[in-house]
Amino acid sequence: MRAIWKGAVAFGLVNVPVRLYAATGEHEVRLHQVHREDGGRIRYRKVCSLDGEQVEWADIAKGYETEDGELVVLTDEDFDQLPLSTEREIEVLEFVPAEQVDPILLQKTYYLEPDRTAAKPYALLRGALEQTDRVAVVKVAIRQRESMAVLRVRDKVIVLQTLLWPDEVREADFPVLDDDVSVRPQELTMASSLVESLAADFDPSQYEDAYVTALEELIAAKVSSGDTQAPASPPEEEGASEGGAEVVDLLAALQRSVDKARAARGEDADEGSAGAGSGAGRSARRTASTGRGATGAAKDRGSTAASSTTKGAAKDAPAKKSAAKASPAAKAAAKKAPAKKAADAEDAAPARRKARSKAS
After folding, report:
1. Integer Cα distance of 332 and 263 in angstroms
2. How far apart are CA 254 and CA 261, in angstroms?
3. Helix or strand holding residue 311 (H, E)
4. Are 38 and 232 contacting, i.e. CB atoms less than 8 angstroms apart?
5. Sequence-distant (≥ 6) Cβ neighbours of residue 14 within 8 angstroms
6. Cα separation, 146 vs 8, whole angstroms
7. In 206-277, which ranges are continuous DSSP H helix?
């Protein structure tokens, strides 16, 4: 078992360090809700009623609605400020006769295990409860909720049983019980005889949950007959996993970050990309080669002007190369230069042809 609470029992000047363990656990066959057609799990998501957006657990607070319809929002910080004087202590208030504790008040049961150094005071409290046939009424805070409880002895273990607060027990208000009902003595005698015929010492181990047993047998029969199917795997949702946690493709996220940084510097997003940007790179190269083919004729027609332009460009090439390395903007301008030169040469070609025809 795993301890769910650690503190001490304090009665008088005696302090008994203890650990708290859940003494009971529900036995049930865990079933999921699934789609009858394909076996897909039915999911329940926390969605805001105003904007329809799914809300993460960290963004959820608790709210109290007043009688006039106003909403009071309470955060974790608000709850942390509330006083819990018994947060790490089981404070004994009084010792009362066991029969005076109405069973309707009893809630959950816990075992108290003493620290090794507290074995003697633990045995002292246990012996006092057994000898006086009383239970200790205490106050304790478990999971940030303060509760009343009683300490009693079961075998050799001190048991803590939480109690409902008195105002949490409803009154039985059934007017039909106030009516006068006559019961004949013979009927009462016959009922008492029936009770005596079924009288026995209580042994809960002789009873079992017939429904759960039958359900387990039904499931086992389906498994043995092969009446099963592989669990359906839902497609991953973009940006969210089953529990609402964000699912991020790390490689894609890094690529987007690189592209965004390059765009901010004036570079093409596809430059320097490996793998993911190769398709776009090939497309850019095809476009560039097409542009060179389209401008080839213009260069032939204006060979003189083009050659002089090329010589000038060759002289400036080292400077432009270093400038392109130093500045992304210069690199972009250098890329545009050949296309601009070709366009200028093409525009100048008609004028030169006209001049040659006049000279001839």
Report:
1. 12
2. 11
3. helix 303-326
4. yes
5. 121, 124, 125
6. 15
7. 210-224, 250-264
Q: Distance between CA atoms of 136 and 90, rounded to whole angstroms?
A: 10
Both tokens assigned to 67: 């009688």
Q: How distant, in Å, are the alpha carbons of 86, 87, 88, 109, 110 from that of 143? A: 12, 9, 11, 15, 14
Which pair of structure tokens corresponds to residue 33? 């809700």
Q: Which pLDDT band, with edges at 50, 70 and 90, does 239 fall under?
A: very low
Q: In Å, what is the CA distance from 222 to each residue of 29, 169, 225, 226?
A: 15, 44, 5, 6
CB of 142 closer than 8 Å to CB of 112 = no
Please report how the helices 328-359 and 278-301 are oriented relative to each other, as an axis angle in degrees rounded to 10: 20
In the block, residue with structure tokens 């002289």: 315
The two three-digit tokens of residue 23, written as one number: 């003494």
**What is the predicted pLDDT for the residue at 20?**
87
Identity of the amino acid at 14 = V
Tell me the pLDDT tens digit for each residue of 45-73.
899 989 989 999 889 989 999 989 899 99
Q: Is 234 exposed, middle or buried (0-12, 13-18, 19+ CB in 10 A)?
A: exposed
Let me know: does 38 contact 54? Beta carbons within 8 Å.
no
CA distances from 154 to 76, 93, 112, 127, 161 (A): 38, 21, 11, 12, 11
- Decide if 266 contacts 259 (C-beta within 8 A): no
d(CA 112, CA 187): 48
| Coil/strand/helix, residue 6 | strand
CA distance 270 to 280: 6
Q: Which DSSP state fits 116?
A: G
Could you tell me if 149 and 89 are in contact, meaning their C-beta atoms sit under 8 angstroms apart?
no
Which pLDDT belongs to residue 251? Answer: 63
Contact 87, 10 (CB under 8 A): no
Q: What are phi and psi of 345, to 5 degrees?
A: -65, -40
**What mean pLDDT is reported for the chain?**
74
* Cβ pair 97, 133 in contact under 8 A: yes
State the amino acid at position 94 in one-letter form.
Answer: E
